[in-house]
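Comment thread on ticket #2218

A.B. wrote:
> Attaching the input chain for the structure job we discussed in standup.
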Amino acid sequence: MAVADSSALIPLIKIGRLDLLRKVFDEILIPEAVWEEVVVEGKKLGKAVKEFEEGKERWFKVVAGRKLDSTPMSLEANDYQVFSTAKDDILLTNDASLYYFALSQNGRPYWLTTLVLAAVKKKKISRNEAQDILLELVNTGGMHLKSDILSELLMIIRNM
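C.D. wrote:
> Ran it. Output below, let me know if you need it in another format.
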């Protein structure tokens, strides 16, 4: 099971690859705050968000976020709700603050790059498709990678 953050969902929506989530995870939870953020942001994306909206209750569940008395200073309230929802499950994010906070709390954060690598490893997508997805994420501005990291990822995929 995975809990997805808007920072991971929006880039996947932009490139039309929400299917990666379904290919890698059996169950996907979306906290209400993330749902609202993605749908509001999605209005700027036009038709692309429609697939996400139609997926509610079909291939992912929207869940209520925990009521919080306070949050760590390093995280926004929505990010802490995402972290709290994930508990021991995988937390899919493209947000460095949330990723490193989860890591520091013995969570199981995944970057979008980890999702792509997992899809190849599970033979859900081809190596060529994975390389195309990474390049498209970078080219659309949905994911910022240094050129040396991108080169290394492309080499890892080629050698899988």
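A.B. wrote:
> Thanks. Noting for the ticket: The mean pLDDT is 88.
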